[in-house]
């Protein structure tokens, strides 16, 4: 959703910035429900130093560049990827149109010589901004969902799988969950007429309400080496049900 870049420096510290991807641009704008900044911090396993990460917004350009408000902070955890809640800063960025990049300065108390922050290098280790958006009201396809279908007839039942509820949010970065959906309901009997039989016999063949169209799920997660991996998993979402 957001594209990362390493910006200029301020007071000897590198700035990071995020630009909105084209796929997330809408005429209605962004309604940010939650925003989380993920930063990879590397420290020797033999000793786990105590440190605190701070993220500040940055305003202005060139000689007028200055540090703004505190965007978020977190105490260093044992895991490689540290998470900072930057919802307030992301909402202000979205409210301004998100046309300019969201620029942040990262500072660390207790990191000197003991903890390395990965602010550049390979894409899989760069900082990541995870945005959770409020869903705009959309018109449903009435022919698909069970809440609009005739009682007991074949339809698609919405079913949400929460990765947080499953305890998988420690390794799945995005999404927080997804609508897997499933099919339920009965199908009208299909009558087959055999013309070769002198007395036409009606044979009922039972049809089953089943998925006829799927869509993929894009998953971003931490790999075995703690790098970030993006993978598209086919046929994870039931989009349409019918009686084939």
TrEMBL record:
Q: Care to name a GO molecular-function term for this sequence?
A: cytokine activity
SMART domains named among the record's database cross-references: TGFB
Parts of the chain that traverse the membrane: none
Domain of life, source organism: Eukaryota
Q: Please tell me where this protein is predominantly located.
A: secreted
Ranges for domain TGF-beta family profile come to: 139-244
Give GO cellular component annotations, separated by semicolons.
extracellular space
Q: Where in the cell is it found?
A: Secreted
Alphabetical list of InterPro entries matching this protein:
Cystine-knot_cytokine, TGF-b_C, TGF-beta-rel, TGFb_CS
Q: Which SUPFAM superfamilies match?
A: Cystine-knot cytokines
**Keyword annotations from UniProtKB, A to Z:** Disulfide bond, Growth factor, Secreted
Q: Which family does it belong to?
A: Belongs to the TGF-beta family.
Its recorded name reads TGF-beta family profile domain-containing protein
Lineage here is: Eukaryota, Metazoa, Ecdysozoa, Arthropoda, Hexapoda
């Amino acid at each position: 959703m957001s594209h990362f870049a390493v910006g200029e420096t301020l007071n000897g510290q590198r700035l990071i910035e995020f630009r909105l991807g084209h796929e997330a641009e809408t005429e209605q704008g962004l309604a940010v429900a939650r925003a989380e900044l993920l930063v990879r911090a590397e420290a020797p396993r033999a000793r786990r130093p105590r440190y605190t990460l701070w993220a500040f917004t940055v305003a202005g350009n060139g000689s007028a560049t200055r540090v703004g408000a505190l965007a978020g902070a977190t105490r260093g955890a044992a895991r490689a990827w540290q998470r900072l809640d930057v919802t307030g800063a992301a909402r202000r960025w979205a409210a301004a149109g998100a046309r300019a990049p969201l620029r942040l300065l990262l500072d660390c108390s207790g990191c000197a010589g003991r903890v390395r922050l990965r602010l550049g290098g390979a894409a899989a280790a760069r900082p990541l901004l995870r945005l959770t958006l409020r869903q705009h009201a959309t018109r449903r396809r009435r022919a698909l969902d069970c809440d609009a279908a005739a009682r007991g007839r074949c339809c698609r039942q919405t079913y949400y799988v929460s990765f947080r509820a499953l305890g998988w949010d420690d390794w799945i970065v995005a999404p927080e969950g997804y609508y897997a959906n499933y099919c339920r309901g009965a199908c009208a009997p299909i009558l087959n007429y055999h013309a070769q039989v002198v007395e036409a016999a009606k044979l009922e063949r039972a049809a089953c309400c089943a998925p006829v169209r799927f869509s993929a799920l894009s998953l971003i997660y931490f790999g075995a080496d703690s790098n970030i991996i993006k993978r598209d998993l086919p046929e994870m979402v039931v989009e349409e049900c019918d009686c084939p």
